[in-house]
Structures are given as structure tokens and as C-alpha cells.
Amino acid sequence: MTLILGLETSCDETAAAVVRDGRFVLSNVVAAQHKLHERYRGVVPEIASRAHLQNINPVIQEALVQAGVTLNDLDAIAVGHRPGLIGSLLVGVSAAKTLAWAAGKPLIGIDHVRAHLHAATLTDGTLKKGLSTFNGGGEMPGSPLAFPALGLVVSGGHTSLYAMTSPTDLTPLGSTIDDAVGEAYDKAAVILNVGYPGGPKLDQLAQQGDPTAHDLPRSMLGKDSLDFSFSGLKTAVLYTVRGHPKGRGAAARFQRSVEDLSEKQIADIAASFQAAAVDAVIKKLSRAVHHMADHNTPPRSLVIGGGVSANSLLRTRAAELGEQLGIAVRIPAFDYCLDNAAMIAGLAFTHYQANDFAELDLPAVASGSCCPPRCLLSRPHRERIVRGCYHPPMMFDLIFLGTGTSAGVPMIGCECEVCTSDDPRDRRDRPSVLVRYADDRQGPARQFLIDTAPEMRQQMIRHQVNRIDGVLYTHGHADHIFGLDDLRRFNAVMKTAVDIHAEPNVLTSLRKMFPYVFAPEKNVNPSFVPTLIAHELEPGRSLDLFGATWTPIRLMHGRLPILGFRIDYAGKSIAYCTDVSSIPPESYPLLDGLDVLVIDGLRYRHHPTHLTIEQALEQVERIKPRRAYLTHLAHDVKHADLEPKLPAGVFLPYDGLVVGVG
Questions:
Q1: Are residues 73 and 127 in the same domain?
Q2: One domain for residues 124 and 155
Q3: 135 or 163: which leads in pLDDT
Q4: Residue 254 lies in a domain
Q5: Which one, of 7, 83, 116, 117, lies nearest residue 568 by Cα?
Q6: Sheet holding 107-111, edge to edge
Q7: Selection from 5, 4, 6 nearest residue 340 by Cα
Q8: CATH number, domain at 306?
Q9: Measured between alpha carbons, how far is 440 from 366 in angstroms, rounded to an integer?
């Protein structure tokens, strides 16, 4: 008999569980945080981390008490250490390391995503709850999976298909190229205003509606594709609720709001959305079964895990598919669908049997799964079966789109040495950057603009940027926002709205400066204008954007409060602080431990709203990043003259420079 204590803190559930022999759950304690995050309609990383700190010890103690064991009775300590919110992961990983060291027990690091696939094998070890798995093939509860198997993980951050030859041998077959299905549920729930958490609320509401009321899209991509796409479905729900604005205007000024709809109309839209989302998943499951059969590995079981596996329609449709194809369907009991520690401890048993233990320097990794992405690997690596804790290639970089001032360099009518320089590094667009990162989800890299400079169109063409996942604004000055109109091309290319994030006063400025975008009903002629969804930012309150934590930082631009941004991804960090003249004392902790700092360094002479070169270097010395780059450079600064004089680790960027962090 092997007893393993599992810990799980990847997002907003603090969980601990004791599992016997990998399948029999002796305790499964979960402290949820729904009430803490409800007002924000999404998980706030800092709030989640603080709640984990408060809950972790009582949850562990309760799990041991319910299981009737002590630390000395355990054979190992397991923890989900990837992927997730970095602050949340650190709480669980630190607790697991401490327990393992103090009790002299082996430590096992578990990939959270693949643990969801093991959840279907769990059953109640106390024999009090009856069947623990829903299955369409007659297996006894707690029985191991029949391999080869087809695995599907469906959650708020993942929608992925895997060919499985054992609990730890997975080969990726397909994944979402944009939104995960759980993410689409959450966004649809916000559009329909059904409450939080959105997925379960929408599922309940859908059961009261007519799934045929609206013909919403099912994205199949190519005829043989095993990838998913849900962003178009989300946008279709938005248009169904609020109507198509005249001239494709911004979301804030659609023809109607959800409050104009009856309860029956809202339920019908919810049911139609759920029908479309689940239909797309089931069709891809069927394709994947035939794909594996065509490659001489017909699956003996279909395994589904993740929060969306609790969805009522998905469970029904999956059972029907299994019966149709003659394949056993394994779906977790409801207790094991959402994030929990029983699945962590259960999967750890396989590692325990293989003596696959972690050292006490086990890292918490925000993004990336143990399965390498197809799109980032050569064919031989794609075809190998992945074992253990293979660390996939990870991309995290920043492209300097513009490094100049509000006037740009060269300036109109100026004949100075820099404005007439033939050094391309002295030609500077207005300031903005593109932040890119990629994880294991096989789709394109996530790409976010910080500010939309007047030259945005040329910048996007120059760098072949054909899609973005959003825009974050530092402040509302013209050199940072006047490229906003060009966002409409992304609407056309991506067939979806563009999310923009800014402080409330900046959003107000945008509405005043671009009334034709935000109030299209007042336009004289119908026209193609950007379709935007606005989100308010607050300094110090982080947001999770596709696995990266973005933290707005309060800065001062003369007397004007503005924002900088810190981006944390896969254990690395970048901060972007342009147009700054001073940093408030409370903002410095948000700049600790940076890999890369980009900071304003306008010129040598004093300026009332910008740091000088000397002042910027003083800030670099205080913040102590591993590397620093001075941006927002005036025509006083000649690249070839200043670059050699900078201290070690400090550099002058130039337009087009790519700074890699991963």
C-alpha cells in the first residue's frame, strides 16, 4: 500500500488530498475562492495567492485528519508545479518542499494538465460514495485506463487532445489556436451576465433554453484538423446579444444590451452557445479516434478531464459517442473535474513506482506542459513519446516597435546630426512594443501591443504581425494612441473583436478622441471602424492573459499618473516603463527581480516629464534588473556615441530590436 499526499494551488483552489495506490481517494479537501473573485468575474492573481497562504496549512491538516494518517504514514509528497499562476504555484510548491524535507519523504512534481487525465481513474477509497467515474465501457470504479487511449483536457486554459500509451506517455494531437473552451464559456457568461463562476452558471441556464434557437458557428478549421478554435463563437454570442452595430462599431455602443433581452431569450442564447461549443469538441474527438485508428493505434478508451468535463451536455454527448464507436468513455466524478489534489496524488503514484522524484529545487513554472508543442519541434521530436518532466521550448520576447519621442526621429525640419544620420538605429518611431510568448498549446504565440503609436500600420507590416490578442495602454497622449484606428484590420483578419485594456480616464479620452469608433450610430455614413472590447485597469491589480501575469504599475509622467507594465511568464519577467519622470515608492516592489527593464531615458538635459539619461541610470542601479534598455530617445541621443558609454548590462534599443527572455 502506497500513500501519497498531493497539493494543488495552480489557480484559485487550495487543495490537499491523500490517495492510496494511485486511485483510491482517502481525503480530498478543497478551499475554493469563488466569493473572493466574484466581483471581478475572473481570478485576480494577487488575491488568489494571498488566499492560498491563508488556507494551505489548514487544508493540509484537514486532509490528513480525514484520511486518518499522519505525515509519518505517507510514502511521498506530490505537488502540481506547472502550469498555473506563478504566485499561486509558489505557495503549493513551497509547502510541498517544506513537508518533504521535514518528514524526510520523496518529493514528486506533477504537471497539472496531464493530472486532469488521471482524474477519471479516481474512486472513493472510503467506499462511502459509490461509483466515482462515469464510464461507458463497463470498467469498475478505480480501475486503470485501457491503453492506448485518447485524452481530452477541457478547461479554462486548455483544450487539448493527446494520444496516450500510459499515464505519463502522451503525444499531442491538437489544441486550441485561440480561446480554450472554458475561456469561451467564461466570456460568454460575462456577455450574458449570468454570474460567476461562468461555466457552471451558463450550463445551468442552457438547460432552460432552446439549443436550436440560434445557429452559432462550429469552427472545424481544415477537414483533417484536430485543432480547436472558439474565438469566433464567442464573437457570435456577442453579436447575438447586442446586435451588429452600424458600421461595425465598438462593443460599448452596440444596438442593445443584455438587459434588453428577456430571460427566455438569454436562456436560448446560452443553450445555442453550449450546443455549438460541445458539438465542436465532440466532432474533433471523433476525428481524433479515426486519426489514431488510421495510424494503427485505435484507442481502447476515451478519457476526458478538466473543469469543463463537468458540463452536462459534454458528458451526455461523450457517452453517446463512445457507444456509437464502441469505445469506453472515462470522465471524472464531479468532485474530480475541477482543480483538486487527488488527481495530483493519483498521478504521482506512477512516478513513485518509477522512482521519478524531484529535488528540493523543483521550480514553479507558470506556463508549459510536459508535452512539447508540435509547432515548436522538429518532426523527430514531435513523433517521440514524451516522458517525465521534459521542458518544452519556451518563447518570451519583446519587440521594440518604436523607441523615439512624441515627435519621432528624425523630426520635421530638423537638420541636426542625429536627424540626418544614416545609422538606421537613429531612426525612431513613436514609442510602443509588442510582447510575445508561447507555451505548449500548439497555436501561434500570444501577442500583445503596449500602446498604438501613429506608425502602427507600418510597424505591423514591417514585422508581419497579422494577429494580436489585445492592447494595453500606458496613457492617453497622442503618440501612444493615434494608431487605434488601424486595429480594425485585425478585426477583419481575425474575425473577432480586439480587447483593449486601460485606466478609466484613458478609456474616457479614447471615447472623446475617437467618437466615430465608440459611438458609430452618430456617423453620417456607415463605415468600417474598429470593434473593441474595453477593460479597465487598476495599478497593482494583476490580470492573467493566456498564462502570463500582467501587473499595471503606477508611474508619474510629470504630474500625470500613468501606467507601466510588468509581465511575468514561465519564471521570467519584463517591465516596460516609458514616459516616466518619477516612480512612486509603492511601485518599486513591483519592479523587484526583473530579467529585463525597459525605462524612459529621454536625453542628457533636464525635462519636466521624462527621466534624463543620468536619472534613468540611477533608477536602473536602484531596481537592479539583469538587463536594462533606455527608450523614448530624443534626437539629442546618437546611438553610436552613447551605447559604448553605458554601464554593463544597460543597452540602447533601436526600432525592430527583439529582446528575448525565454
A1: yes
A2: no
A3: 163
A4: yes
A5: 83
A6: 107-111, 76-82, 3-8, 13-20, 24-32, 123-124
A7: 6
A8: 3.30.420.40
A9: 11
Please report the pLDDT score of residue 662 as a whole number: 57
- Give yes or no for a contact between 632 and 576, defined as CB atoms under 8 angstroms apart: no
**Per-position b or e across 557-576, b if 16+ CB within 10 A of its CB:** beeeebbbbbbbbbbbbbbb
Count of structural domains, the chain: 3
* pLDDT above 80 (res 477): yes
Phi and psi for 215 in degrees, rounded to 5? -90, 85
What's the CATH number where 543 sits? 3.60.15.10
Residues 104 and 172 in one domain: no
Structure-block grid coordinates of residue 523: 456617423
Query: Strands 548-557 and 560-569: what pairing?
Result: antiparallel
In angstroms, the CA 169 to CA 378 distance is 19
For 361, the 3-state DSSP assignment is coil
Radius of gyration in angstroms for the set of CA atoms belonging to the chain, rounded to a whole number: 26
pLDDT in tens, 554-605: 999 999 999 999 999 988 899 999 999 999 999 999 999 999 999 999 999 9
Contact 7, 344 (CB under 8 A): yes
Distant-in-sequence, close-in-space partners of 104: CB < 8 Å, separation ≥ 6 = none
Answer yes or no: is 390 within a domain: no
Looking at the domain assignment, is residue 121 inside a domain?
yes
Shared domain for 471 and 618, answered yes or no, is yes
Q: Are residues 493 and 639 in the same domain?
A: yes
Amino acid at 49: S
If pLDDT is split at 50, 70 and 90, which confidence band does 179 have? confident
pTM equals 0.58
pLDDT band at 282 (very low <50, low <70, confident <90, very high): very high
495 and 367 co-located in one domain: no
Run of H or E including 525: none
User: In 589-620, which positions are buried (b, 16+ CB within 10 angstroms) versus exposed (e)?
Assistant: ebbeebbbbbbbbbbeeebebbbbbebbbebb
Is 119 found in the same domain as 141? no
Task: Report the range of poorest mean pLDDT among 127-131, 455-459, 545-549.
Answer: 127-131
Q: How far apart are CA 540 and CA 487, in angstroms?
A: 27
pLDDT at res. 444: 66
Given a contact cutoff of 8 angstroms between Cβ atoms, the answer to whether 207 and 215 are in contact is: no
Separation between Cα atoms, residue 467 and residue 613, nearest integer Å: 35
Alpha-carbon separation of residue 341 from 69, 101, 510 (angstroms): 16, 20, 45
In the prediction, which pLDDT does 14 show? 95
Using DSSP's 3-state secondary structure scheme, residue 336 falls into helix
What H or E segment, with its residue span, contains residue 526?
none
- Which range has the worst mean pLDDT, 192-201, 238-247, 284-293? 238-247
* Domain range for 46: 1-132+334-385
Is 252 part of a structural domain of the chain? Answer: yes
Whether residues 604 and 559 share a domain: the answer is yes
